[in-house]
Amino acid sequence: MATSSSSSVISGIPLSQVRWDTSRGGGGRSIVRVNRPVPTASLPLTRFRFHLSPTPAAARWQGDVRSRNTIGLEFQDWKNNTIRKKKKQSGACKAWKWTSPVSFSQQCKRWIPCCSSLNRNCYRKITPLPLATSAPTFFPDKSCFPLSSHKLNTTSGKHICAPCATVGPDEPHAASTTWPDGLLEKQDFDSLYPQFQTTELEGFLSTQLPSHPKLHRGQLKNGLRYLILPNKVPPNRFEAHMEVHVGSIDEEDDEQGIAHMIEHVAFLGSKKREKLLGTGARSNAYTDFHHTVFHIHSPTCSKESDEDLLPLVLDALNEIAFHPKFLSSRVEKERRAILSELQMMNTIEYRVDCQLLQHLHSENKLSKRFPIGLEEQIKKWDADKIRKFHERWYFPGNATLYIVGDIDNISKTIYQIEAVFGQTALENEMPSPPTSSAFGAMASFLVPKLSAGLAGSSSHERLSNPADQSKIIKMEKHAVRPPVKHNWSLPGHNTDMKPPQIFQHELLQNFSINMFCKIPVNKVWTFGDLRNVLMKRIFLSALHFRINTRYKSSNPPFTSVELDHSDSGREGCTVTTLTVTAEPKNWQNAIKVAVQEVRRLKEFGVTKGELTRYMDALLKDSEQLAAMIDNVSSVDNLDFIMESDALGHTVMDQTQGHESLMAVAGTVTLDEVNSIGAQVLEFISDFAKPTAPLPAAIVACVPKKVHLDGIGETEFEITPSEITAAIKSGLEEPIEAEPELEVPKELISPLQLQELRMQRRPSFIPLSPEMNVTKVQDKETGITQLCLSNGIPVNYKISKNEARGGVMRLIVGGGRAAETSDSKGAVVVGVRTLSEGGRVGNFSREQVELFCVNHLINCSLESTEEFISMEFRFTLRDNGMHAAFQLLHMVLEHSVWLDDAFDRARQLYLSYYRSIPKSLERSTAHKLMLAMMNGDERFVEPTPKSLQNLTLKSVKDAVMNQFVGDNMEVSIVGDFSEEEIESCVLDYLGTVRASRDSEREHGFSPILFRPSPSDLQFQQVFLKDTDERACAYIAGPAPNRWGLTVDGKDLLESVADIPIADDALPHSEEGKDIQKDLQKKLHGHPLFFGITMGLLAEVINSRLFTTVRDSLGLTYDVSFELNLFDRLKLGWYVISVTSTPSKVYRAVDACKNVLRGLHTNKIAPRELERAKRTLLMRHEAEIKSNAYWLGLLAHLQASSVPRKDISCVKELTSLYEAASIEDIYLAYDQLKVDEDSLYSCIGIAGVHAGEGTTASEEEEESDGGFQGVIPVGRGLSTMTRPTT
After folding, report:
1. H or E element: which one contains 1029?
2. Residue 193 and residue 103: Cα distance in Å, rounded?
3. How far apart are CA 1245 and CA 1248, in angstroms?
4. Is the pLDDT assigned to residue 133 strictly greater than 60?
């Protein structure tokens, strides 16, 4: 589904928004995370996660922490933080991803060596909206250069650390790092560094890493730990998170899901939390294996009285965590919500995830303690049962409080913490685990090994007398979290190899296989630990790049190959995962190729050039992030600290991280990189050898039936022995060493550029015939507008928010709306074809990608219904901006269109089309979309017939015909000078060939809603499935953002003449005049409907939650969203609701009643004020982000969006403030909610779904998101959804 109008207004163009993808991320990993057939270059490099420091959010707020009043809103995505609801992008409109396969500096998982090691999905992180990743530049060969003796002497002589910021093994939430005896090997430093004294190098590498200088740690007498970090972004706000170290792993056999139940009851039953709702605070909660977290994001003081809000927030957290009221009414209400949540989560993706976890952790409780719990048990518990579990685990000594934000007075904050929590009952008298100060780094080896979830595994003994136990609830906590025992994948540790496991299901579309290796977490405490992390990163970066470039020049047998090596705090281990996805018919070759490439890298290692390239990438990336140290948001800092604590890693700030990385980089050698990297891959490369570590599990997830051309559906057969044979076949193929690639330093040489200037003579021209100036600058916003002589308009803003970094976006009008009746799917397949080819001019895909790596560039190409866009992220170091502009020039002038790339793109869409009937959400939403849009295929995925009619020429023409001067607009935001940016614009954009096509728009087929009434206004979808689920969508027409409707009306004309009602104005005459002027300004402003529709969406979302979810208990998840187009003269609204088959019809009726009830149940002033605060807080939080400004600049000069001008940026805040309740009703009256205009579709899955019902067998196409293959990973089941 589309993002809400409020997000679109502020961000300008929702280029990454999803149309009709009902999947949402939640909890720690996405609840519906379907892997899309994206170009392999776009895959996160080996999914090798570094969380060594927090990251600045590139575009915060989509799916941010939500309180009840914000449910369902989707702002532009920035990262996948699992405490936040998130909507996935449409893979169908996403394509070209020239990314650095090395660094994640611009992604949500931005890597910097601030030491939280490699992290797979630790701490509720999921793969985000792919914001651009950065990539590196050429770096002198440092494969064997020495550290200066100055560095060695200074670092080995003393520790650079702040005692208040240390973390030790006594932390109950730190993962165990205990290795089996005899498995620790000492490095042979003499052979590695003959030029150094061994003792000197050993001394340096064993030196502790510096600790974050601003992080304050403490502990109250009752055992509550607290961490405080001052942080100014966003200003005047703070994050307070209460982490209770209890989760599903602590549940007994008859308590499965009770921790999650307590989270719901405690959080939503808190009256003190509810009192914060009017202050601008937002709150939520989640539960996973090892902890439960309640969090509040709040202003530092109230707007009305300047009252300090921290004490009120702490008081609310104290009530939620330690003094909840387990009222029977609240327990029943949350029981209904959780049962609905359970059915909502139980997608095929979730079931795949459960299968992976069950086999990976078959030896311990992690395999059978999924946080959501068991339905039959959830139905039985009473308040007393829940209360007893709470008394056992929820006490200050088993919790940690995190406060990060705009806090100046640390002493005052500590005093406030003590005042609120100090009186909470002291922990029972019990022995404590040894402290880090007593044992230092060796303490982790002294922690007793814990049995798998047994009650006796706590750090203190139980009462021996059962009679006493019935009277006293013994408080429990664990020295190590989670308290489970793993069977490690280490040489000699296990001797019995488990056969491959097969999970086969009718709802699976593609083949996937996961090979797992599981080892203890290596805590990153010393420079030597960080050095090992760096070397693994380099090694696996090379593997990812090789696999995803070597096979792109031909049709590869796999859809994707990913290698993930990361720590998991929630699972208490480090897991290496090789994941291969493929079309079922290609599964054996896909496995063979993946294993072959792993073996090649293990046998021959990385090359000298690869070491240079990827080392430089990481150093440049960390340098870039260190420069942005003052722009990291509080929630990012907090997430990072919580991750690090869970894993027991040292916490550093960005500057310390970069300096530490630079220090260890000089000690790295090529031989050692290959040696340590080979160890990571041995479980694959030496598979079945006696000396190799055994895989922890091998799990294949496969369909029951597959489609064969000329035959149709046929049974898919596969056996464990066949899987083993396919793995071994990859070990037997002959392999050769990897050749060095020649990497271009530039795509356009100075001589070529000079010739282009002479030929094209670029210049700036007046922006319009009426204006006699070639440059328009707005001092208030800092926005500059230019127009090139070839017709390309340019907007830019100089911003210091992200030091030496920049973003650029090309927007091209047209998108899928430009597809004609005989070229359905041409634009979307064309964009994918361009992506799959990845070539420009005479440069191969490999060369282009390495050019991006060397210049810290990320590029993505995507399409929506009304635009094609290309976005770049770059650094200004080492001519990075020039390199980005060169790449853009080459794409516009010298794109290469390849037949095999076209074949792959078409096959991907065909595969996706065939997967739609296997998804309840997609098939339901698709059916509704076809009905409402009168069968217009431009709003769904192309059918096989349409795909068959396409040719390489037709898709190339469909895309490139839109890339003409006056139909394009380029916006740039970054830390550059006026001279730098205008020089690049002239040289590389100004020399693009001039072309105009004023006749282009006349060929567009009109877009119309289906005439109403229609017999398709209510429909149903039934899906045969082993488990029951239900969902529904309700939709109807709306105007576009600028007040234009599909039937040709201009609604702004009527709004401007409406008089201002006096009863809505302040009492004072002066106040009345001011407010009247503001409202008149709003009524005459082109953004009137964009503003009021956004506020309306907030109000409706709040009411849906309160009524359908909270009061009636008919759903866990319901949301209202608006898709207001910019270029097309239409929009629509959608309500999405999940429920059970027995409740879904009532849930739909309740949603309709809320939607239609705004006139009978009038909007209250407090509802409007809350909506304003929500949207304005987002705006204030985002305003320092370059990506956000890029959205604000969009369409300022677009001829296809004539109503957007600079006032839409300058006056945004005042326009929201001016809106009245009457204005909201003006917007509401433009939504068609009557029975003849409203469309709904209900989807029901189950064993008996649809029996006795005659349903039309329409062809089904995708609804929004090119998701392709079923996801593989272990994330979906390890955490619950956010409570609200």
Report:
1. strand 1029-1038
2. 28
3. 8
4. no
